[in-house]
Amino acid sequence: MPTAVAAVDFGATSIRVCRIDLDVPSPELDVVHRYAHHPVADADGTLRWDWDRLVAEMERGLDRARARGPLASIGIDAWAVDYGLLDGTGELVEAPVSYRDRRTAGYREVVERIGERRLYELCGLQLMPINTIFQVAAHDRAELGRARHLVMLPELLAYHLTGEITAELTSAGATGLFDLATADWSTELADAAGLPTALLPGILPPGTLVGKWRDVPVHLVGGHDTASAVLGGAVDGAAYVSAGTWLLVGRMLANPDTTEATRLAGFTNEQGAAGGIRLLRNVAGWWLVEECRRSWGEPDLDELLTAAAEVGPVPAADATDARFLAPDDMGAELIAAAGLGGDASRPEIIRCAVESMAQSTASVVAQLGLPNVQVFGGGSRSELLLGLLAEHVDGAVTVGPVEATALGNAMSQGLALGVFRSVAEARRALVGQIRREAMTT
Q1: Is 191 a known active-site residue?
Q2: Same domain, yes or no, for 334 and 244?
Q3: Rounded CA gap, 105 and 134, in Å?
Q4: Is residue 198 domain-shared with residue 309, that is, in the same domain?
């Protein structure tokens, strides 16, 4: 009987539950459930995730995956930086706050307490107000006082399935509370955020068995979704672009790079799902387009992109600018940042968004020193983005699996189950054979 796993992939705008047979000659990734979502403001105006609904949709997807045959394992990945607080009875203190909330506007106070250089030496992360360390520092003190555990979102989902409270390496490494030198939580960084280290669970590697859900083993995978995506989509010798809500643009390194030049260039050092370091930079991705669509009443995406492809060249904005994190009006923000002019049409604004993504990505790729680029993830479906990116980078643009995150998630499970003996074998057997959209520009 084939060994099938369920890969639960939580993105910040859409969640997917996928079923994958790991050891058949021509494996297929079967997306059994999708659910679009977004954060909602509570009575006090705090932007929170609709957590009960998200957990319910995850379980609905897992039920569908099990209905198609036995499962050997479940793995969960989600976006980074956000977390939940559990009280002494194991209940959520409140629904998790979204990184899009503006509570971290004063994050520089924390930076100044530590010092920019010291902060980078310790955790190696790009300085962004959404980082967990700054969220914790801004967290309501009454809520924090009721907490007994701080759990990152991928492991919080695993907790809902298994009742086990854990932390996973790639999730922990993206918090700004992690010490690169010790590969453990940093007391110095936690103290700067006003966080008792007793709230932080012990850190475990991907592949660890943490419990069961309805007799199905639950394994930790690369909990940070980009870690799983890079495992499933990156290729040797090329820069990578994990294309989704964000464009994560980077390369793999054997060891962290916390030099002053790397810090000033805005690069972040994150833990790899199978070892190594993901040196990357965050570029605003399809969030730019989706926020425009949301404010315009959700017009058809394909029609917008087709119209955008037909307009002439437009000026671009810097898609690494923090102004695009959570503006009140994304269209107006793009117009102002790029100098489009107040009479810009919707197709021109969308063309500006995609052009900004492509030019900013190409700029980061040039800094990485690898001319060729591998693009994967849901955003790699866009011919407009791929074409513009090809215009701006020096090397070839190759497209990898659309569902790279789910594939990387499944690879980690296959390694944990002993189906694969190495990452190279997993890539040959799974990623190299699975039916996917691929092209070379």
Answers
A1: no
A2: yes
A3: 9
A4: no
Number of domains into which the chain is organized: 2
Predicted pLDDT of residue 434: 53
Q: List the alpha helices (DSSP H) in 209-280.
A: 225-233, 260-264
Instruction: Say yes or no to pLDDT of 206 above 50.
Output: yes
Residue type, 421: R
On whether residue 419 sits in a domain, the answer given is no
Q: Which of 151, 185, 219 is the last residue of a domain?
A: 219
Residue at 86 is within a domain: yes
* % of residues, the chain, pLDDT over 90: 88
- Specify which residues 7 forms β-bridges with: 18, 75
Same-domain pairing of 159 and 303:
no
Tell me which DSSP letter residue 64 carries. H
Do residues 307 and 367 share a domain? Answer: yes
Mean of pLDDT values over 410-432: 91
Residues 6+ positions from 199 with CB-CB distance below 8 Å: 85, 147, 148, 149, 150
For residues 375 and 433, which has the higher predicted lDDT (pLDDT)? 375
Question: Taking 50 as the threshold, does the pLDDT of residue 292 lie above it?
Answer: yes
Check residue 111 and give its pLDDT: 97
Mean pLDDT for the stretch of residues 215-223: 98
Q: How far is CA 383 from CA 197, 260, 299, 344, 438, in A?
A: 46, 37, 19, 23, 11
Question: Are both 14 and 99 inside the same structural domain?
Answer: yes
In-domain check, residue 332? yes
**Tens digits of per-residue pLDDT, 314-345?**
999 999 998 998 899 999 999 999 999 888 99
pLDDT at 123: 98
Residue 2 has pLDDT above 80, yes or no: no
Mean per-residue pLDDT of the chain = 94
How far apart, in Å, are the Cα atoms of 121 and each of 118, 276, 364?
5, 17, 21
One-character DSSP codes across 308-359? HHHS-------TT-GGGSS-S-HHHHHHHHHT--TT--HHHHHHHHHHHHHH
Let me know if residue 301 belongs to a domain.
yes
Contact yes or no for 278/252 (Cβ under 8 A):
yes
CATH classification of the domain holding 209: 3.30.420.40
Instruction: Give the burial class of 309: count Cβ atoms within 10 A of its Cβ; 0-12 exposed, 13-18 middle, 19 or more buried.
Output: middle
Asked if residue 194 and residue 248 are part of one domain, the reply reads no
Range of the domain at 303: 233-400
Helices 301-310 + 383-392 axis angle, to 10: 40
Asked if 362 and 355 count as a contact pair (C-beta separation under 8 A), the reply is no
Catalytic residue among 50, 52, 225, 300: 225
Q: What is the pLDDT of residue 435?
A: 39
Give the list of residues 6+ apart from residue 163 with CB closer than 8 angstroms, or none: 90, 211
